[in-house]
């Protein structure tokens, strides 16, 4: 009996001792934690890109929450692949604000905890080949960094997270060379391959200057630029400057001319919107100049079409010269018809389906009128008609040869008769008008 009482007492004492110890330990810890939440962070405390120095936990939470709301409303997240943009909804990033504030190390730069659901990529129309080879982990890291730093606009190139692609020939264009086109051949053979870097403009004039061939003729350079322009058209490279002549040059098909004249600052300029470089290679094959574009395969297929072709007949302008004899004719200028064409770029998707059409140019060449030089027509001498028998006049010596009217001098021609509706002024009216100014003859002085 006594042993049972001792056992009960010992048990009660143990429970009471544990209660007191737990209350002392955990109560102090809870009180300290509560006090810590009301304590302001020290100087140089950062959570992501937000400075929370001298803020309490509640103030830091509110500041980050406001920053997140503003960022979600204004930011743009884009994935870029071969010049095409795919927008990601920023709300797919989940900001763990409470966990970030609770894990802050005072006086240090701390990470803003952000999570992203990779299923958001399924909402994008990325090519299946891209989705299969995409390095999702590294892509996720860059997206989370954009959210942590509250980047206003973020463009992420997917080429960085895909295996490198072997270069291929994307398009080729050529022009035929005649026996007189030796200058074009010499210039093309002196050119090295042109490399257009990613996101970089290109100037044909600057390229020629660097190659040290700026002494060539404008006609030769225009032929080469036209071949380059035609090779570029079935790609996604952008034409930023291009000119044409008043007349279509030989060896250049309608719609594919690119005139250059460096002395007049007439240039051909391009822009590469891709994340990879592309090369332009010049080759002389037989009597042809070939221009090829090499690089990573493009996302879409491009087809060049021409529409609205029209031809305008020239007129013939005739001029006269006294230096030519009758029956001779000289042609000062041969005529040529005017031309009009509209060039378009059709874009087809990965599955071959038509996507859209882009207008490239509307080229117009005015007609050249034909000018002919003809001899001056000879003057035509007019012979007066022979007098009739009724009007024959016989002159008798001593007889007056002139017909006169009484009251007029002999030999004068009578004045022409006035029409009935002509206005005449009588003497009375004239005297009345004169009297109004000088008075009447019989007027008594006043």
TrEMBL record:
Q: To which species is this protein native? A: Mesobacillus boroniphilus
Upper lineage? Bacteria, Bacillati, Bacillota, Bacilli, Bacillales
Q: Which Pfam families match?
A: G5 (PF07501), VanW (PF04294)
Residue ranges under compositional bias (Polar residues)? 390-405
The protein's UniProt keywords, in alphabetical order, are: Signal
Record-annotated G5 domain positions: 300-378
Q: Where is this region: Disordered?
A: 379-446
Question: PANTHER family annotated for this entry?
Answer: EXPORTED PROTEIN, EXPORTED PROTEIN-RELATED
- Which InterPro entries does its entry note? G5_dom, Glycopeptide_resist_protein, Vancomycin_resist_VanW
Comp. bias intervals (Acidic residues)? 421-432
Which named protein is this? G5 domain-containing protein
């Amino acid at each position: 009996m006594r042993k049972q009482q001792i056992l009960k007492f010992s048990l009660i004492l143990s429970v009471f001792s544990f209660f007191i110890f737990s209350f002392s330990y955990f109560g102090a810890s809870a009180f300290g934690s509560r006090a810590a939440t009301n304590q302001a962070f020290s100087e140089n405390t950062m959570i992501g890109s937000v400075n929370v120095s001298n803020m309490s936990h509640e103030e830091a939470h509110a500041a980050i929450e406001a920053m997140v709301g503003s960022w979600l409303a204004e930011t743009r997240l884009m994935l870029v692949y071969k010049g095409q943009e795919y927008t990601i909804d920023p709300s797919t990033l989940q900001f763990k604000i409470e966990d970030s504030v609770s894990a802050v190390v005072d006086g240090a730069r701390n990470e803003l905890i952000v999570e992203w659901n990779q299923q958001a990529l399924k909402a994008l129309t990325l090519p299946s080949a891209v989705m299969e080879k995409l390095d999702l982990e590294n892509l996720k890291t860059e997206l989370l960094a954009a959210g942590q730093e509250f980047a206003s606009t973020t463009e992420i190139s997917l080429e960085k997270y895909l295996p490198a692609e072997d270069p291929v020939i994307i398009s080729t264009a050529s022009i035929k060379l005649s026996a007189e086109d030796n200058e074009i051949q010499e210039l093309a053979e002196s050119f090295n391959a042109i490399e257009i870097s990613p996101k970089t403009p290109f100037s044909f004039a600057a390229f020629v200057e660097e190659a040290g061939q700026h002494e060539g003729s404008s006609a030769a350079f225009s032929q080469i630029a036209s071949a380059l322009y035609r090779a570029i058209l079935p790609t996604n490279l952008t034409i930023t400057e291009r000119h044409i002549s008043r007349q279509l040059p030989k060896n250049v098909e309608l719609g594919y001319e690119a005139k250059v004249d460096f002395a007049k600052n007439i240039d051909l300029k391009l822009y590469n919107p891709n994340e990879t470089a592309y090369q332009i290679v010049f080759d002389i094959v037989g009597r042809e100049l070939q221009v090829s574009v090499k690089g990573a395969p493009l996302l879409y297929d491009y087809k060049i079409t021409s529409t609205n072709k029209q031809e305008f007949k020239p007129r013939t302008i005739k001029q006269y010269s006294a230096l030519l004899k009758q029956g001779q004719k000289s042609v000062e200028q041969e005529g040529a018809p005017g031309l009009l064409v509209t060039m378009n770029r059709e874009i087809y998707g990965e599955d071959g389906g038509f996507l859209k059409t882009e207008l490239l140019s509307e080229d117009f060449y005015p007609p050249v009128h034909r000018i002919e030089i003809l001899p001056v027509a000879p003057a035509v001498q007019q012979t007066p008609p022979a007098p009739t028998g009724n009007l024959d006049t016989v002159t008798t010596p001593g007889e007056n040869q002139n017909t006169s009217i009484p009251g007029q001098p002999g030999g004068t021609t009578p004045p022409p008769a006035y029409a009935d509706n002509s206005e005449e002024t009588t003497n009375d009216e004239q005297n009345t008008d004169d009297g109004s100014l000088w008075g009447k003859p019989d007027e008594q002085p006043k």
